[in-house]
Amino acid sequence: MSDLVIPSDLLPLDGRFGCGPSKIRKEQLEHLISFGDTILGTSHRQPGVKDLVGRVRAGLGELFTIPAGYEVVLGNGGSTAFWDAAAFGLIEKRSQHLVFGEFGGKFAKAAAAPWLETPDVIKADTGSRSEFVPTPGIDVYAWPQNETSTGVMAPVTRVVADEGALTVIDATSAAGGIDFDASQADVYYFAPQKNFASDGGIWFALFSPAAIARVERIAASGRYIPEFLSLKNAIDNSRLNQTLNTPAVATLLLMENQIDWMNASGGLTWAAARTRESSSVLYDWATGIDYATPFVVNPEHRSQVVVTIDFDDAIDASKISKALRANGVLDTEPYRKLGRNQLRIATFTAIDPADVRQLVASIEYVTGRLGN
Ligand SMILES: *Cc1c(COP(=O)(O)O)cnc(C)c1O
């Protein structure tokens, strides 16, 4: 099995289908090289890097058509660090979390901090999703726009509840691949290693004026907040195109090129159409054959950027991903803790729909030869 050779005319041109880190386009690497000797290896307190941060912030503002008063904020540590920063500096007393997979659950865990009230956690079985419940006393409503561990997507719709309650969206794997209305979220945070096809380690967030006011109020309240996790500090630094400590400059350069590519190609509507095309190829295929089926039963919950496909018990999906890997088609394994007989495939914006069609051809080729 492991020495199965997939004919080259069936293989994708680029074999990277992982959900993060994910495929980086050749043009991004060329961008990195062409600025390598003027920006890489220079001080992040000087105009070269500061201007780069400014271009990335402006490019994101354009891509997401942010409403007046919204600000693009960044900080070090990736989305995981943002959860802790939010526990310290965004949640006033109590948050509500929709948990329908690993990532939503991780934020709920970070919000179970001793200085806050026990979070209200609304769970759904993996493969479906839960809905928010406006509740007195809740000041942050949080859920992932795309649950990367299961391939379930959820709408971004502001929760109308207590006055001043904030809608906080984990868009780590959704941002740049799914269209939405930025005015519907108070905080829309993400990291660069998914649709932005860059490296990890930084978080970005769109903050509404209400969210900025919340951060400022909590920062002035006397609550203990470690400096590295201070959102107030991140907002103040971002306004100067700075970060508290040294950012990954190569990550910013890779991201700049991806944002420019998206904006020049037609923006978020274009990107969303592209990921919808790629994911439809997989869903239509899995729906049409008898040995596999989309894991997410409700078509409205199915993600357009992370596709999960269950296989019949008679077929061992891990053998498929192993054979694909041996042929240079990488990271189609399911989320490790989900433990299903499944393939998980990213259809992020960088991934070419033509390559997704080739991937299907490769999977069919391998499946037809399993056990032979
Ligand atoms: C990848 C991912 C994260 C974690 O991002 P890091 O930058 O690695 O911390 C969080 N949430 C979602 C939905 C993700 O897909």
TrEMBL record:
Pfam families: Aminotran_5
Any one of the GO BP annotations: glycine biosynthetic process, by transamination of glyoxylate
Keywords: Amino-acid biosynthesis, Aminotransferase, Cytoplasm, Pyridoxal phosphate, Pyridoxine biosynthesis, Serine biosynthesis, Transferase
Co-factor(s): pyridoxal 5'-phosphate
Record domain Aminotransferase class V: where: 139-329
UniProt pathway annotation: Amino-acid biosynthesis; L-serine biosynthesis; L-serine from 3-phospho-D-glycerate: step 2/3
InterPro entries: Aminotrans_V_dom, Pser_aminoTfrase, Pser_aminoTfrase_mycobac, PyrdxlP-dep_Trfase, PyrdxlP-dep_Trfase_major, PyrdxlP-dep_Trfase_small
Gene3D superfamilies, A to Z: Aspartate Aminotransferase, domain 1 (3.90.1150.10), Type I PLP-dependent aspartate aminotransferase-like (Major domain) (3.40.640.10)
GO MF annotations, alphabetized: alanine-glyoxylate transaminase activity; L-serine-pyruvate transaminase activity; O-phospho-L-serine:2-oxoglutarate aminotransferase activity
Domain of life assignment: Bacteria
Group of enzyme by EC: transferase
Catalytic activity: 4-(phosphooxy)-L-threonine + 2-oxoglutarate = (R)-3-hydroxy-2-oxo-4-phosphooxybutanoate + L-glutamate; O-phospho-L-serine + 2-oxoglutarate = 3-phosphooxypyruvate + L-glutamate
EC number(s) from the headed UniProt entry: 2.6.1.52
Functional description taken from the UniProt entry: Catalyzes the reversible conversion of 3-phosphohydroxypyruvate to phosphoserine and of 3-hydroxy-2-oxo-4-phosphonooxybutanoate to phosphohydroxythreonine.
Record-stated family: Belongs to the class-V pyridoxal-phosphate-dependent aminotransferase family. SerC subfamily.
Protein name: phosphoserine transaminase
